Every structure is written in structure tokens, then in C-alpha cells.
Amino acid sequence: MSDTAYTPPEVWDPETVSGGKFANINRPTAGAREEKALPTGEHDFQLYSLATPNGVKVTVMFEELLEAGYSDAEYDAFTINIGDGEQFGSGFVDLNPNSKIPALLDRSGPEPVRVFESGAILLHLAEKFGAFLPTDHTRAEVLSWLFWQMGSGPNIGGGFGHFYNYAPEKYEYPINRYAMEVKRLFDVADQRLAKSEYLGGAEYSIADIATWPWLAPFVKGVIYGEARKFLSIDEYEHVARWANQIGERPAAKRGRIVNRTWGDEDTQLRERHSAADFEGKKL
Amino acid sequence: MSDTAYTPPEVWDPETVSGGKFANINRPTAGAREEKALPTGEHDFQLYSLATPNGVKVTVMFEELLEAGYSDAEYDAFTINIGDGEQFGSGFVDLNPNSKIPALLDRSGPEPVRVFESGAILLHLAEKFGAFLPTDHTRAEVLSWLFWQMGSGPNIGGGFGHFYNYAPEKYEYPINRYAMEVKRLFDVADQRLAKSEYLGGAEYSIADIATWPWLAPFVKGVIYGEARKFLSIDEYEHVARWANQIGERPAAKRGRIVNRTWGDEDTQLRERHSAADFEGKKL
Known about the structure:
Mean pLDDT of chain A: 95
Largest interface: A-B, 83 and 84 residues
CATH topology of the largest domain in chain A: Glutaredoxin
Oligomer: homodimer
CATH superfamily of the largest domain in chain A: Glutaredoxin
CATH class of the largest domain in chain A: Alpha Beta
Structural class of chain A: alpha+beta
Number of domains of chain A: 2
CATH architecture of the largest domain in chain A: 3-Layer(aba) Sandwich
Shape of chain A: globular
């Protein structure tokens, strides 16, 4: 581990930066890079997303609402290929100036509203339908765990996942830093789930819907190469119990394949417009 | 930049990790490290915090509520010295199993509730008092920017701040990675604030209260050493307009010194129990 020859300049110059899997995507500026309208469907809810953990949160939420009988939660889901830079098209940037999936257009109210950031979308839908978020004294606990996930995600994905799996070279210090933090976060969840059926308490809530897509792939060993082994994820038996339990929910099985563009063809659903779209898919 | 001699082991072993300013604090496990009760005051709201950006969010929120005439928002604020590991005392862990400041005990309802994560605390208080969060169609925009801040903070603090300022050595790749992201985030905010007085729209909201403590210190050049110059923060004139505007609010002036343990003595207020505690302080 030696990088000490490096002394940062007084003023950082992005032109000096090269390399990395996402080098063609990352820039130090925001805003649209090309004019490009978004497709739209017929339902009130228009979702633009990809089946990454942050994307899966929202498709699981919609499928849970539909599963629970809220038929007004029908939605059209379109795939945004972030590797191709579709998040920088003008239509998408109008919905989310931060150019990240997922983004939602909600046309169910008196005037259309945009919602961006997965946590905001979950909260918006939970409030709209009165579901998966208690209104009594247990609400604060659910909100706490929801925000805990939102603050944790960047350390798991952009931190650990990037340095362990995506960065052009292996750097020891950042890998150690984020391995430490991801294990700590798993332990936080594990200790909680040892005492509580769900993160927010006795009831399944948007705190679980937000967290499951980030932790379950580690339990199943399907994220960041050998991360499950590297981080000894098998130690967290209560997280595994919870992840497997949620994984059996029909809505979770459906939601995780919406906007999926990898894996076997029958585990991909690039666009979702109705329940019939899941026919023939392997759930 | 060369760290390529490093090959991660199959299974990560925390015992092999050394160094770093926070090495005595960071562990891969959660939970209390010692029995230690928290002090309590007389008000309904008991806050345990430190005047870092995440802490300042909540003290500004309380001071804004009081400034707006919500006298039920009186609070006792106690300092948690994270450098001394006070976040691992059993009383604090009972309030926040994630061992991060800020944490709140709310005794105003029929039974006491804990709230952790700064964003959850802001939302909890906004809902309780019906303030700084609209209930009409503009609510989704405020929630989107609130969650945008929550997802951004880790990249600004634990990412850029750590690698540029706190890490034991300067590593070029992570510094470039997070400099890119922080500049992008500033540009997202700058483009928004060019068109909108506040992040969530025409009205000051919890989205601003959450974001101001993270961006304003860059504008003022009081965070992470030479970060203001390194990142050319002067480019973001609309962020500066907004940061300075909020900085003039009496509640922001008070909130930022609560639980502060550094700087001149007259800019520190280690415990706050009433408005009188600010007397003689330099606001």
C-alpha cells in the first residue's frame, strides 16, 4: 500500500483524471447532455429505473401495493440504461436533476409531480396509499430505519462495491475502510433483526422494502463478485432469516426482475405495463 | 498512483487493518462497548449530538421551530464526543443502534420514542409541528431534495472529506473520485438554486435545513482544510447566494453553535437547555 508520492494540487482539475469503469459517465457537472424525451404509458405512475438495489426498492413497493389490493398503484416501468448514459437525456433530467435512477412521474393528483431518490419515492407512495408506514408512535422507528438505509447505501455501493469490484485497480486502504463499514452495517441490522421480525418492528414496512435490495444480494452471493465470502456474510444469521423471508413474498419476486437487463432472458422484464408482463418469467 | 501489489484475501480479516485517524473508533461490529447512561433534562425533547453537519441540521431545526413560535419545541441538547467513543455507550446505543449522532428522545407523545438519523429527525419534527414541510403537491419536491441530501452526505463527508483531509495518506484515485462527485453535487444544487429560491421551491423547508450544514462550510472555507480552493467552490454562485441567505437567519446562527466543541470559546455551546444559554455567545 503506497500512494504517498501523490500530493493533491491546490486546485483540482478534472481533465487530469483518467480510467475507471465509469470514466465515460462520470463528470463534475450536472444537467442534460442531449435532448431526449422519455416514453410514457397509460397509468398514473410512470417509473424510469433499472434493477439495481435502488431501483428494485421501488418496483417491489409498487408490486407490494398491487399485491395488497391497491389497484390504483398500476404503473408503467421503463428501463434507463445508465451504462449508456440515458440518465443524462433531457427528459430524465427534468424528472431527476441528479441523473440517478429511479425517478417517478406521478400523474394521480390534481397536477403531475416528479419524485426522485428511492427513499422519497417509497415515502411518497406510502403516504399516498396509506400503506407500509404506520401513523402511530411506531412511525418514528420506521422512518429511522428508512433513513438509516439511505445513509448506508452509498457506503455499500459507491464505497465497498466500487473499490472491491469496479475500480480499475485494487487499493488496500479504501477496501479496508469500506469492508469495515459494510460489516458494521450488517451487524447493526443483524442485532436489530435478532430482536425484531422486521427492521421497523413487528410489521413489514418501507424500511424493509428499502433495505432488502441492498442486503439480500450479499446473502445470496450475487453482488460484487466474491463479496459474500470476503465479508463473511454467513455470520449474519438474522439478516439471512429476514432476507429469505422477504424473498418469498410474491411482490419481491416480481419487483426484482422489473427493469432488469442482465441474467437469463426469463429473469428480465425490461418494461412493465401490467401484471400480464410477468407471464412466462421465472420468479 | 500505484497500489497494484495489493490482492485482497479471499476472506477479509479486520485484524490486519491498521492506521487512520479514526482507527481507535472504527470496528466491524455494532453495539454498546460500555455501560453508560445518558444525562437528561426537563424538556420533552432530549437531543444527543455534536455540531458536525449532521448534528447542526437538527439544532437548526429546533431553533427554527422556536423562532417560528412553536414553544413546545424547547429541547435539551447534550454533546456526544465521538472522538472519545461516547456514541458506543449503552444509553446512546439504546437510542441509536447505529452509533452515530444525532439521536433524539421524544417524550412529547403518549409514550417516548427514539428517532435516529438526521433526516428522520427532521421529518419527525416537521410532521409533529406541521412546519417546514408542505402538505400540498409541493411536498414530493421537498422530500426528493431531503433524500437527495441524505444520499449525498456520505460522499461528501465519508468520501471526499475522509480521503482529502483525514486519511493517513493521500491516495490519488479516491480523491479524484470524490472530488468529481462533490463538484457534481454542487452543480446539481447550483442549477436548482439558479431557478428556485430554496431547494424545495419558493419556501424554506427541511430540504434546506438538511443541506445547508453540508454546503455552507465549503462556501465559507471552514471545512476540510483547503477544500474550498481545491474544488473551486467559488464557481457555484447560486449555492453561495442561498448559503449566505440562510446563514443570516437567527435560528441558523444559533443552531450551528449548539454542541460545538471546537473554535473560540464564545462560539461553543456544549449544552443547550434554554434560550438564555446563548447569552454572551458570538452568533
